[in-house]
């Protein structure tokens, strides 16, 4: 059998570096926030070339916070692709808003901008596009849909950190 993903290979390659880093964090009991989290956030910001970055505990929280930052909550709808990890929808439901699922394209399995547009109602506040499998969705097309209807466009990059159009 050929394994689809061999996670052991990466660990073996970087084992000493990983173990030294884990040991240092444990010895300093710096598990939540603190200098290591700050350093990671800053190095990740530089890697992305982003102007600002705030680290959070996981991708689900990041999506929920993005919704809250945009003032999204009960009574609002947010369009999300039907094919994604469930946390994309959780980021919406945790605010009290309703996720509205739209279809994906047959060739990329990523959000279909045309179907996203068909799902817009008077309650829609945002669309979440998900860059799946390390490949970007049709950003320019979805951006046009969002702009045409005055909606926020949020990108879920949990599976695609650092990918570019
Ligand atoms: C597309 C997508 N969005 C959001 C998440 C949620 O991330 P987390 O598991 O860190 O909460 C994941 C996790 O796999 C994901 O694949």
Overview of this structure, please?
By secondary structure, the chain is an alpha/beta fold. The chain has 2 domains: 7-48, no CATH class; 59-156, Type I PLP-dependent aspartate aminotransferase-like (Major domain) (Aspartate Aminotransferase, domain 2), CATH 3.40.640. It is 42% helix and 13% strand. The chain contains 6 helices and 4 strands. It has helices at residues 7-27, 34-48, 59-69, 87-93, 113-118, 139-148, and strands spanning 77-81, 98-102, 124-130, 152-156. A 4-stranded parallel β-sheet has the order 2-1-3-4, sandwiched between helices. Helix 3 (59-69) runs parallel beside helix 4. The chain is globular, with a radius of gyration of 18 Å. The two termini are 34 Å apart. It binds pyridoxal-5'-phosphate (PLP). Pyridoxal-5'-phosphate is lined by residues 58-60, 84-85, 87-88, 130, 156, 158-159.
């Amino acid at each position: 059998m050929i394994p689809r993903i061999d996670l052991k290979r990466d660990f073996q390659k970087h084992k000493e570096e990983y173990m030294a880093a884990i040991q240092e964090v444990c010895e300093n009991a710096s598990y939540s926030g603190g200098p290591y989290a700050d350093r990671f956030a800053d190095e990740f910001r530089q890697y992305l070339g982003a102007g600002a970055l705030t680290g959070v505990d996981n991708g689900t929280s990041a999506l929920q916070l993005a919704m809250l930052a945009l003032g999204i909550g009960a009574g609002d709808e947010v369009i999300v692709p039907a094919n994604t990890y469930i946390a994309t929808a959780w980021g919406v439901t945790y605010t009290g808003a309703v996720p509205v699922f739209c279809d994906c394209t047959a060739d990329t399995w990523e959000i279909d901008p045309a179907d996203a547009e068909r799902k817009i109602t008077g309650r829609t506040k945002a669309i979440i596009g998900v860059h799946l499998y390390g490949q970007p969705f049709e950003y320019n097309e979805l951006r046009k849909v969002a702009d045409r209807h005055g909606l926020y466009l949020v990108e879920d990059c949990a599976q695609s950190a650092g990918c570019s159009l």
